[in-house]
Design a protein that fits this description.
- This protein is mostly helical.
- It folds into two domains: 1-69; 71-128.
- Helices cover 80% and strands 5% of the residues.
- The chain has six helices and two strands, in the order ααααβααβ.
- The chain has helices at residues 2-25, 31-45, 47-54, 57-69, 74-94, 99-119; strands at 71-73, 121-123.
- The chain has a two-stranded parallel ribbon.
- Helix 2 runs antiparallel to helix 3.
């Protein structure tokens, strides 16, 4: 059973990393959340995979400033918040018959907006 869980987390990490890598090239896909999910999946699968992922350029460029310094560039913040708004907006649109779901989704969106504007320091483009 333990091996099945490790394989699941490893697959989740690989798939998330792939989607995050595609998101670097395609602006419609958010890079940050998928790379964060990849880090989580690799960390749950094995320390070796987590260390490998932390050594990749994707991690160093997109996640390391946030994970180590709690900073993001203004452009990165805007990209994350816009993609989050788009995807949560789609969910909000489809929940027209579930008002409680809409309220919860709106509260989650509001929390994310406050966190990214107030909780994460904005760094200059060359600083990160």
């Amino acid at each position: 059973m333990k091996n099945i869980k490790r394989i699941f987390w490893l697959l989740l990490g690989c798939i998330s990393m792939g989607i995050g890598a595609v998101g670097v090239v395609l602006p419609i896909l958010p890079t940050f959340p998928f790379l964060l999910l990849a880090l989580f999946g690799f960390a749950k699968s094995s320390a070796k995979m987590e260390n490998w992922f932390r050594s990749t350029g994707l991690y160093r460029k997109h996640l390391e400033p946030l994970m180590e310094k709690k900073t993001m560039t203004r452009r990165a913040k805007i990209t994350v918040m816009l993609s989050m708004t788009l995807f949560m907006g789609i969910g909000f649109w489809f929940m027209d018959s579930v008002p409680v779901g809409r309220v919860i989704l709106a509260l989650v969106w509001l929390f994310h907006m406050i966190y990214f504007t107030k909780g994460i320091r904005t760094a200059a483009a060359g600083e990160v």
